[in-house]
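Example (one chain per record):
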Amino acid sequence: MADKTKRKKVTQPLRKDMEAEITTLFQQWLITFEKTQSAKDDEETDAALARIESRIAATPAEGLRGLVVKLGLQRFLNEHADAASELAASAYADLMRLTGHDPASEILARLRSVQ
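Predicted structure:
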């Protein structure tokens, strides 16, 4: 029992840390994005945005806050920029990990069974 208690204590701060990391990265993205609006064709700022987006995607979400940041940013990028983003795939992977459910694989399995 003592081991399970220790594990929980280690896991809970990690969740908060990951959510805080995603939130902090998103705030950095917003600041950098504002800079792009005042700069004309600034490749350095565009590269900085891409790096932040990659870091957000690479950071596992441990709750709804992190997931909504990933999906919200993905939605914005899809609607307002011609940019491919890894954020939706990352958010989906987080949801599969958190729920233990992969609807896309279920769909593919059914599709294969009828072919």
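Caption: The first helix runs from residue 2 to 38.
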